[in-house]
Amino acid sequence: MYGNTTPLDRHSLLIEANRIIRAHDEYMHGMEATEVEQKGGVLIFRGEFFLDQDGVPTRKTTAVFNMFKHLAVVLSEKYHLED
Question: Which InterPro entries does this chain map to (predicted)?
């Protein structure tokens, strides 16, 4: 169903995702993946989105969104969520 990807449990996927986040050039303090789910062949990562006091997205929100998109592309090619 998932092609040539390796099954990995949720906890291990989050460890790998957060390792990638911290090593990335665009890392900002506080970026962290706290949830992952599988939608078809794509891993979807979630975490804090850093809204301001009025609930408006900040510059950091855009960076986090882009990081989670990066994780989806990179890790979905290698892994699928183990049931």
Answer: DUF2498 (IPR019633), YciN_sf (IPR038191)
This prediction's pTM:
0.90
C-alpha distances out from residue 8 to 15, 31, 78, 79, Å: 11, 22, 10, 6
On average, the pLDDT of the chain sits at: 94
Beta bridge partners of 51: 57
Closest by CA position to 20, among listed 80, 76, 79, 68: 68
Amino acid in the structure at residue 72: A
What class is the 6-81 domain?
alpha beta
